Structure formats: structure tokens, C-alpha cells
Amino acid sequence: MNCLQNFPRLYALPSEFFKPHEIKSSSFVHMLPVMNANDLDIRQSLAVKAVSGSKSSSEMSEVAEEKKSDVYSDTMTEAMGASLTYRHELGINYNFIRPDLIVGSCLQSPADVDKLRNIGVKTIFCLQQDPDLEDFDGFDLRMRLPAVVSKLYKAMNRNGGIAYIHCTAGMGRAPAVALAYMYWVQGYRLNEAHRLLLSKRSCCPKLDAIKSATADIEGHYEYKYIVDGEWTCNRNELVTPTNKDGHTNNYVVVSADDPDSDRAQVRKRLTGEDPDLTTNERIKIRQFLEEVSDHE
Questions:
Q1: Region labeled Disordered — which residues (predicted)?
Q2: 23 — alpha (psi -120 to 50), left (phi > 0) or beta?
Q3: Is 167 annotated in the active site?
Q4: Which is catalytic among the residues 126, 167, 203, 233?
């Protein structure tokens, strides 16, 4: 079993159909080397974490654990615009999305590794970050997604078996990466993959971020600032009307110079209500995923 762990900071990739000749050294996701179970049993790594944290865990009351989960769930709900609940104290939870693809929450003990190994998992793909707020950032996701999916694509081709993709709760970044993989590599239409994902797991992947990562498009982009740990708008910039959830955002509008150009038409198609890729577009994306350097 292999374990892939990405560093907290990742960088933007060119998104004009992932042209390899446009790639720069600063554009790639930075990930730790792949660790083979024969060389370094990841159970040992998790055991070290479990031992080092045992004292603080034993001193923490059940009420404190529940409060921690409540705070995380509230943050996730506010940032993602959907009512989602994560209970860390209940342990690992996951769902098979496809026979070769699982989306779940973070591993918490060596026993979790054994459990995944026993069901055929060959790759554990970790997307946890510090701070967790970035886990809910659609723009951050768009910037990082192509390089992350490249790592997943190569690992699944190399290892075979089942891939277990997780972030902290398995409700935001992890399902988004799984969704992009299904869309770019496995031949699903985006909405088809999204319906399948939601039928298997309660989650809220950011579809617009995946569309934007597929083609860097003109359009209406919403955003917020984080000030002292709180999401807030700048009232001196463009502000959206209040949405159905009672939220307002800042926004910027980016438009193509020539809306009738071929490139503009492709972008419009890929960010429409039911986007799909042509056979040739998927070939280009796979070529890009294969050519991204593992050492960048």
C-alpha cells in the first residue's frame, strides 16, 4: 500500500487545456515521496502519531471532542454553503464511489490502515491541510486540482487496486478530486459523475472549481476574505445580492475579448450546465497528467 501526502502549499497550473509546453517549475503540486509498505510501513507512522498524541487525547473529554467537531462542521457549512456534519470522535468513515475509488475521512489509527488494506486499498491519497479553511476554498481548489489529479492518476496506474482519497472530513476537497478524476480520466460527464458521487456519499464538491480547472474561463467569480479567522466581504468592492442562504460575496467579472472565438466557445461549453469533454480533449488532459513531473 502506498501513501501520498501533499505539503500544505500547492501552486497554480496553467489551465488553458493543460498545454505541457506552458508548464513552469513553480506550477506543480509539491508532494512527499511515495512510501512503499515494504520499505516503510505506514502503520508505524500512524502508530507514532497515535502514541505522541495519546496523552492529550486521554485528557480531552468527550464533550471537548464533540465541540471540536461542531466547530469544524459549522466552519465547513458556512464556507461551502451546504449543511454538512463531521464527527471526528466517531472514527473513520468512507464510501465506495466506484469499485476502484473510495472517498472518506482522515485515518486516525493503525487499525484504519489494516481495515483499508483488507478491502484491497493500494493507495491512500491524503489531501489534509493546515489551516483547514483552505480545504473549503473553491479558488484554491481550482489552482491545485490539475497537479493533484496527476499524482492520483499516476499512483492508480502504478499500484492498481483501490484508491482511498481523503481530506479531513471527506466532504469537500477529497470528493472534488475524485470527481475531477472521474471526469477527466474515466470518461464520465461531469454531472453524471456528480450524481453518482452524491448517491454514494453526503458531500459538497465545488463543481465550478472543477469546471474552471478544466478550462480557464471568462465569467463571474465570487470570493471572500478571511480576516481574523472570519469570512467577510469588502464593502468597497463589488458585492453580490444576498443568496438563498443569507450570504453575500465579493465578485469580479472576466470577459473574453472575442466572445465568438473558438476558444471562447470551448470555454462556454466546458462551463455550461452539462459540460463534457470530447475524446480529443480527454487525450490532451491525460497526456498532461502523465507529463507532470513527480519531483516539481
A1: 244-263
A2: beta
A3: yes
A4: 167
End-to-end, the C-alpha distance of the chain in Å comes to: 23
**Is residue 97 pLDDT above 90, yes or no?**
yes
Q: Quick check: is 243 in a domain?
A: no
The residues near 226 (Cβ < 8 Å, ≥ 6 apart) are: 133, 232
- Alpha carbons within 13 angstroms on the beta-carbon side of residue 72 total 21
Domain, as residue range, for 36? 2-209+276-291
Q: Is residue 230 part of a domain?
A: no
For cell 458585492, name the residue.
239
Q: Where do we find the cell 497537479?
A: 147
Helices 207-214 and 190-200: crossing angle, nearest 10°?
Answer: 150
Residues 81 and 47: their CA atoms lie apart, in Å, by 36
Grid coordinates belonging to 82: 451546504
Strand partners, 123: 2, 163
Q: pTM value?
A: 0.62
- The reply to whether 160 falls in a domain is yes
Query: Residue 104 belongs to a domain with what CATH number?
Result: 3.90.190.10
Distance CA 247, CA 73 (A): 17
CA-nearest of 168, 193, 149 to 80 is 168
- CB 296 within 8 Å of CB 28: yes
**What pLDDT digit, counting tens, does each position of 252-267 carry?**
776 666 666 777 788 8
Kindly state whether residue 46 falls inside one of the protein's structural domains: yes
What size, in residues, is the chain?
Answer: 296
Read off the pLDDT of residues 4-55 as tens digits, 9 standing for 90 and up.
Answer: 543 333 322 333 333 333 333 222 232 323 333 333 344 444 443 444 445 5
SS3 of 267, please?
A: helix
Q: What is the mean pLDDT of residues 226-248?
A: 87
